[in-house]
Amino acid sequence: MDALTLHSPILAVAIPLLAAFATPLIGRLSSRARDVFVIAALASMLFVVILLARDVYEVGIRIYTLGALSPSQAIPENHMVPVRLVFEVDGLGALMAIITAVVALAGTIYSIVSIKPETGQNRFYALLLLLVVGIMGIQLTGDMFNLFVFLEILSISGAALAAFRTRFVDAVEGGFKYLMVSTVGALLFLLAIGIFYGQYNALNIAAIASAMQYTVLDQVALALILAAFLMKSGAVPSHWWVPDTYTPAPAGTSPIMYASSLACLAATFRMLFSLYGVQMSLATVGWIVIIAGVLSMFVGVTMALRQTDIKRLMVYHVISQEGYMLLGVGVGLAVLSNPEALAAYGREAIAGGLFHVINNAFFKGLLLLTAEALFFRLGTRDLNQMGGMGRTMKWTCAFFLIGALAISGVPPFNGFASKLMIYESTYLFNPVLTIIALIVSVMTLASFTKVFQSAFTGPALPQYKEVREVPMSMKLGMGLLAAATVFISLFPAFVVDTIIYPAADALLDRSGYISAVMGGG
Amino acid sequence: MSQLVLNAPFVAVAALTCVACYIIMTQKNLIKIVMGVVILQGAVNLFLVTLGYRIGGVAPIYTETSGTLMVLPVPQALTLTNIVIGVSTTALMLALIVLIYRHTGETDAEKSRRMKG
Predict the structure, then answer these.
(1) Could you tell me which of A111, A335, A502, B107 has the fewest CB atoms within 10 Å of its CB?
(2) What does pTM read for this prediction?
(3) Is B39's Cβ below 8 Å from some Cβ in A?
(4) Cα-flanking dihedrals φ and ψ of residue B54, to 5°?
(5) Domains identified in chain B and CATH numbers
(6) Would you call B92 an interface residue with chain A, using a CB distance cutoff of 8 Å?
(7) How does pLDDT run across A369-383, given as a tens digit for each residue?
């Protein structure tokens, strides 16, 4: 067990990576064995991640140096800087790793039935596992260039998955757009890496952070990094690709793709807090993040209100909810240099934003899966052609209700808990932001009421007489996310104390992040 | 004069980046957009290699050199990785364009539905 915990950072990436390449081979023998294998791989990844997270919460930041005699030896003897590849896991990394592992498991269980009608399933699972590798790697790595490589793994597998149902032209277009955005974003990021390497001769995030001089070039690099990651996470003004890519993507992948967006968001936070930190004039950057957040909230929800395609509607809410996270963390960023304000509401705002990340990963993923469940049975995503599905698809209806109430911030669901944290803290910072956030929340509720009414209530339609509930594996996948949502709703204080505040504190503790690798301090 | 010559690669990087961004933002033909991305890749690669260059340096493949400088090996490794990644993303993009062309008979972003980017 100790050895497993010791090597857990690398195992969390290595298990899905090796499984991705073994999957097509096993699939040639038997498709049932392959399904079992994929689920087993992801379940063991979840187990390793939980071990890792427990260790991080108990002991503190974990580093894992690849190729060193001992994983904790980041800097080789007779060297001043870390030359080897280092994985660095703190509270934020642990939080995101847990989210990724749970969502990946749920999405894959759901896929087992929902992907059955398609050809090329072996490749589907291989790509799915590679996507998980990309997300996991982004969260755990402590090296800039390694982050770039994982970003590209994520881009390529994500684009191929989005375009997986090549018989739909919109799926192919969605994949192309995603690849386009990702590639350009990743190249901008690589340009920033080049700038850092030219100045500081280092690729390790902690090493760069400790040497950071805040020159003009560093500001250029910050602009490049912000552009790259916000583009990939789909915040306004680069939100246009999100609905086109997510809507036609195959069923079970939607929540995992969503987790990848959240991962990019978390990477943005990592760069802002751990790499740049308090010396930068962060009020300006904080306001940029806040404004991007408010715009995303507002644009996302207004676009969602006029959609009739159920999944497209939900995807616009993805953009809108991302706005809340940016708002929360942006407020924390803006007051980072002011210890009083930070203690009064800054930490709370960051925690609220991060709490919203985990909540959304679960209930938003759940909602995307229910939309796909309707599409699976009805063959349409048009809300105007649906009706009365609450009578025949009772489980799906119940799961939808849990997700919809949670996302609209209705008490006692977890969406309410995280939104309340954001409201309270932003109110102390600037009441206007809170009012906008409240209005957006009301509009979200309105939009989901519309979906509920058109899809689930009303008389049973004659053309859907034969429609039955979705098969077991799809129910199981949705049930897992619903259970996670309900669990957080029941014990919000427990969740916030055990995993959210450590993540927020990890963002605030820049010197801790640096000294874990560089020593001293 | 020598200042100018030494900085020439960086000027080229800036010029290529601008050209690439202009192409990606304004062109409608999907193939041309991919060309823009490839130019951007070239710009980034040139930037990385230039960073590691030392005047009169030799290739970093010897363990013993008689006091001469070596160019930095790390940027070259980064460049090599980026070239490999670049080839695979370009290949995937072109494959997707072929699929779009089969569906719509067009490689024009404006004509095939609402496609932009």
Answers:
(1) B107
(2) 0.91
(3) no
(4) -125, 135
(5) 2-56+68-104 (1.10.287.3510)
(6) yes
(7) 988 888 888 877 888
